[in-house]
Amino acid sequence: MILKSNGEYVATHVEFACSTFKQALGLMFRKDIPENYALVFVMKKCRKVSLHMLFVNYPIDAIFLDEQKRVIQTSSLQAWIGICSCKEKVKYIIETSHGKSDKIGITAGDKIYFENRCH
Fold it and tell me: What is the 3-state secondary structure (H, E, C) of 28-51?
């Protein structure tokens, strides 16, 4: 489960991409994802990252977090052609359903809560 600091749900069904392979695969080749789903990328150390939407058939939102799980940036990515980079180093990336960031009002500086399952 992923929550905002006010207790609002970001996602109730959460997967973790801990390995380099799972992170490279991301959401590619899936037909779609449910509204309450999130894929959390956990970097081994903070670093600058880029995302692409090659082989992703639907738009998504990406939420970039620092080590304290504070939102650095959010991005909406278009199916197949979306590309984005985060301007700062990140520890976590949450990929979730398109429009989720706007729908629940996620903005830079917000604190996000979840248990890191990549230990």
Answer: CCCCCCCCCEEEEEEEEEEECCEE
CATH fold label, 2-113: Jelly Rolls (2.60.120)
Q: What is the number of alpha carbons within 13 Å of residue 61 lying toward its C-beta?
A: 23
Per-domain residue ranges of the chain: 2-113
Condensed to tens digits (0 to 9), the pLDDT of residues 78-114 reads: 999 999 999 999 999 999 999 999 999 999 999 999 9
Residue 10: C-alpha distances to residues 15, 24, 25, 66, 83 (Å): 13, 23, 22, 17, 22
N residues, the chain:
119
| Residue 23 one-letter amino acid | Q
Closest CA to 112 of 38, 32, 45, 18: 38
